[in-house]
Each structure stands twice: as C-alpha cells, then as structure tokens.
Specification:
five-stranded antiparallel β-sheet
Length: 215
C-alpha cells in the first residue's frame, strides 16, 4: 500500500521497486541512499540498488502531487498497490467554504500542494545522492583524469553526474569513460527490467494493487 501527503510517500509491503504515475509538478527533496529514483513529468520509478526490500519512507517532496496509480515489483512481478491520501481531505482541497459547497464528492478542482508550487525541472526533479564509483576510471574529469574508485558522487535526474555525495558549490561535472557504461544508464536499465516483468500480477491472479534528494 502507498500512503502519501504531508510531503512524504510511504510504502507498506515487501518489494524491491515501484512505478508510480502522478499528476502535478513536484521536486523530490530526500530519499534513502539505497533507493535509486528516476522521474519525469508523470512517472516516478525507484529500485533498490542492493536488492533488499524498500524502506517504509520512499521519499519526501514539495509541490503539487496527486498519485494516480502505483505498482510495486517483487520477484520481477508487478503488483498494483492501493493508494491512500493522508493529511489532505476533501474539504481541505475545496476552494470554497464547505458550508456553501453543493458539489458532489470528488468533483472539486483543488490542489494537492505541499510547500511552494514547483515548475518541472528535468535536472533537479530528483538527485540521487551518496553513490560510490565502482572502479577507477569509471568516470573521468573534464581533463581526462580518472575519478578514483569508491568516490562519493551524485547523479541528477537528467543523467548529469557530479562529484560529492551531495551537491555543493565545489561539485564539478564528471563524465563516463568512453569505453565504459555510464552508471546512470545501467541503473535505468535495471529499473526497466524490474518494471517490465514476464508475468504480470493481473494475469497470474495476483493482488490488485543512492537516494534521491534536492539540494
């Protein structure tokens, strides 16, 4: 089950990844380092880098988020999750005074806004922090000098890789070696494999239903 609102998205269950579809415009401000996140204008996908089950708290956010659906991944099988909104009820979404509102439940055009309104930013909608390089030369600086192994880096949602576990004014761009596979592409490939199972939960009778952050 997915529960969201109050600037957080929570998960209850055993799963190694998720695919979430939403409306709105958000910026993910924090998530566990072991959960690699990828996001665009209408979808957020996450996968555990270490293969363990996801933690209860998937991520924190600011902006306007309305989750339309969510599927979790367990043993390469997608299962649809129930979605529960917390902390924002119908009357909080209603722009009119509730005593003057004669509309039917669910027909108002309210906002699911937490904090300030956000504009979609492909570079910063999510930043995966505290990722370590796997080997020397997996990345290199602009002058061709190899980045050492086990170095902390962070990866922006548009694929830009920078030095430092989190972004600071001293962070600089680094680049994958031309003969090596970019870690971002590798992780995105893993996410796609995890969220494209051979057997879906619906056809098998299943139930219906480094970390991100801003700087």
């Amino acid at each position: 089950m997915i529960t969201y609102g109050n600037g957080e998205v929570l998960f209850d269950g055993d799963s190694q990844g998720f695919e979430l579809r939403y409306k709105g415009s958000v910026r993910i401000t924090n998530s566990p380092d072991s959960l690699f996140l990828s996001a665009n204008k209408n979808k957020i996908v996450g996968v555990m880098l270490d293969g363990t089950n996801m933690p209860q708290e998937l991520f924190n956010y600011v902006g306007d988020l309305r989750i339309l659906s969510c599927k979790s991944v367990k043993n390469n099988v997608l299962e649809r999750e129930d979605v529960v909104l917390q902390g924002v009820d119908y009357w909080e979404l209603d722009k009119e005074k509730w005593e003057d509102d004669g509309s039917l439940w669910g027909t108002r055009n309210g906002k699911y806004l937490i904090g300030s309104q956000q504009r979609f930013n492909k570079h910063n909608i999510v930043v995966n922090n505290n990722i370590r390089t796997q080997s020397k030369g997996q990345y290199q600086y602009s002058d061709g000098t190899p980045v050492p192994a086990n170095e902390l880096i962070h990866i922006h949602s548009d694929g830009v890789v920078m030095t430092g576990g989190v972004h600071t004014q001293d962070s600089v761009n680094i680049y994958p070696h031309k003969d090596r596979v970019n870690i971002t592409k590798k992780q995105i490939s893993q996410i796609r494999q995890a969220t494209t199972p051979i057997t879906s939960a619906s056809s098998s009778g299943g139930s219906s239903s480094g970390g991100g952050g801003g700087y």
